[in-house]
Prior knowledge:
The protein is an alpha/beta fold and about 280 residues long. Helices cover about 40% and strands about 20% of the residues.
Amino acid sequence: KSGRAQFQLFDRKLSLKNEAQQRMVESLRFSLQYEPEQFSAAYQPLYNLQTGEFKGVEVLSRWCSPELGQVAPDKFIALAEARGLINLHSARMFALIERDVLSWCHGNEHYSPVIAVNVSVQQIDDQAFQSLILTLNEKVKAANWQLELEVIESQLMTLTDRVIEQFTQWREVGIRIAIDDFGTGYSCLAYLHQLPIDKLKIDRQFLKTKTQSRKEDQIIYAILSMANALNIEVLAEGIESDEQRERLQQLGCQTGQGFGLAKPQPWHKRLMAALPAL
Length: 278
Ligand code: C2E
Ligand code: CA
Ligand code: CA
Ligand code: CA
């Protein structure tokens, strides 16, 4: 079709991959629109590492598709972002959060655990998303929880005045801002003092080695000292073993999350039963 005297390679693997992606996009669009119950929220607890106190939960999206089975968020979130479906996904997650948080609406005004939500950087500047967030924030506050938005560090490389302004506005209404996967973005540390943020989440790559590693410890220690100086909280991600937890405690890391502390789980009675009495 494209003329004589040339040849083209047909890469069967590539074509299969595109087909599979296309099928996933169509399935994702249909499910988000018409079968939202395929999406559920898993909540992973966050703890104070020094005292063991429960600090809140991170919300992680789960998609169980009848055709595709369980699809990892690493796969479908990127597709939702690329195909303009990310707000539809957020709307579904926020509805679940409202339902779940309201079911654990407690009366203690001095206790407000965090509910941390992952946000794609492209949503920050989106008016429809901003209004979803403000509505969610009102519901969460009314139940004595605190909304926190997690934005991945590497996505913030294109930091604009608009983003800084939006973070500032959100903080004015009591929303906390966290930088996720900190340490993977190769970004300049100098931007930290310009950013209105409350928390850094150290990526789990810094905990990878099972045995004590001086270099990793020194990096974590440097992040902690810097964050302390800037009055920013630090949370270590991916704590799997007691040894890792102890290392972080010794280094002075305040908060943590990981399979070794608690796995992501549905908002059932067992999760809430594991929490300290109020
Ligand atoms: P993330 O925000 O860094 O979330 C933490 C991921 O690490 C989760 O994977 C969690 O299950 C996993 N994890 C927690 N503790 C451990 C541990 O001790 N060891 C190991 N190996 N892994 C641990 P998950 O649920 O598969 O989510 C992957 C990513 O997908 C998330 O990474 C986040 O970037 C994205 N994601 C998930 N839900 C949403 C969402 O609702 N919206 C957006 N925009 N992104 C989401
Ligand atoms: Ca996160
Ligand atoms: Ca992370
Ligand atoms: Ca991650």
